[in-house]
Structures are given as structure tokens and as C-alpha cells.
Amino acid sequence: MLTSAIGVLRRRILSVHSDHKCIAKGTAVVSLFVFLGKGAGAFKEMAIAYRYGIGSTVDAWQLALTLVTWLPLTLIAELSILLVPLFVSMRKSKEEMSQFLNELEAMCLVLGVLLTSALLIAWPLVAYVVAAGNLSAGTREMCFHLLAGMSPVGVLSFTVCITAARLQSCDVKGMSTR
User: Are residues 66 and 143 in the same domain?
Assistant: First the structure.
């Protein structure tokens, strides 16, 4: 009974269409990188806790990192859902794809600069709303300086999204989108 079930499962796996195999391989690669990214994030948190312990420095770091990455990462998730099918449909037209990519990358850089600048300009209001007055003046000042230092992360995260969507839209035969 068990042997026949294993045989049936083996035949079904071997008869899977190549598109499904490609999807499974892509999913495995994405899962691997998600696992590695989560592990790197955990090690980063442990290194910060080891180096700085608990206190205002860690609070400022966590708040700055969250503020500078939250909105871009939220928009990136939605943007990648839209871009992958678009890149696949534009694969045949190299000139149109090149022009679209140039315009999209420029717009994403402008959007990143605008969002990051808005965060820095509105920092006093953001600090009051987000922290509800629980942060000391020194922690708020430290957080502002960290935000200014981390601002390139917010700007460049959009271009990373475009590159990731282009990689996801490539087919098995190595046809690239550019």
C-alpha cells in the first residue's frame, strides 16, 4: 500500500509541467533568501542589543529604522505586484521597455527623495505623534540624526524594487527584460 502510494507520488512529481517546476524553483530561491534575510535581521538585532544594551540609543535606532523603511517597503510590496506582469508583457519591445525603465527609475528616485525629505521636515510632528511624548529630547535628537543618516535607504529601496521585479519577470531561458 505504502509502496504504491510512493510510486504514484513519484510519477506525479516527474510528470509536472516545466512551468510549475520553474515556479517551484523560484519559490525555493525566494524562500532561501527570505530565511537568510530574517536571519541577518535577527543577528543585527542581537548585535545592537549586545553593543548598546537597552536604552535611548536603541530606542532611537529602532524608531529611525522603522520610520525610514516602513512606507517605502509597503509601497514596494504593492509596486512589485504591478510591475512583474507589466515587465513580462513588455518583454518583446526592447525600446519601449528601456524607455519605461528609465522613466520608472527616475520617478522612483524622485518619490524616494520626496518621501524621505517629507519625513525629515515633518520630524517634530512625527516624533510627537509616533512616540506620543514618551521619548526624551536627547532620544528625539538622536533619532533625527539617525533618520538623516539612513535616508539613502528610503531613497534607494524603490530602485531595488524595480530590479527585483525585473528579475522575477525573466523566464527560464535567460531572456532578460532589458
Answer: yes
Residue numbers of the domain that contains 35: 1-53
What's the start-to-end Cα distance of the chain, in Å? 52
pLDDT band at 143 (very low <50, low <70, confident <90, very high): confident
- pLDDT at residue 153 above 50? yes
Model confidence, pTM: 0.63
